[in-house]
Amino acid sequence: MQIFVKNLSGNTLTLTAEPTDTISAIKSQVCERELISVEEQRYVFGGKHIRDEFPLSEYGIQKESHPFTFVLDLPGGIIEPSLKGPCLQVQLRERRSGRKCL
């Protein structure tokens, strides 16, 4: 069957898959075509993140269903506790206001 994946630039990729294929298999196809590593890829379908280990049929993704959306996994982290604290309103040059953390 054909499925559709909307990529980061808004273009829709057409992929060949079976209902029993996992999201991980789809990521491999996208990796080959878009040169984005499997680890960086995340997908959303019906407003929900979909996980690698489940087959397409688990999410109701069928032949020519609405495209699911591809998003990049952005590296993140935590805020260092010592950086948390009260902030003061400060006046910047050119009459712009900003915040300065203590």
Automatic annotation (TrEMBL):
<dbReference type="InterPro" id="IPR000626">
    <property type="entry name" value="Ubiquitin-like_dom"/>
</dbReference>
<feature type="domain" description="Ubiquitin-like">
    <location>
        <begin position="1"/>
        <end position="65"/>
    </location>
</feature>
<dbReference type="InterPro" id="IPR019956">
    <property type="entry name" value="Ubiquitin_dom"/>
</dbReference>
<dbReference type="InterPro" id="IPR050158">
    <property type="entry name" value="Ubiquitin_ubiquitin-like"/>
</dbReference>
<dbReference type="InterPro" id="IPR029071">
    <property type="entry name" value="Ubiquitin-like_domsf"/>
</dbReference>
<protein>
    <recommendedName>
        <fullName>Ubiquitin-like domain-containing protein</fullName>
    </recommendedName>
</protein>
<dbReference type="Pfam" id="PF00240">
    <property type="entry name" value="ubiquitin"/>
</dbReference>
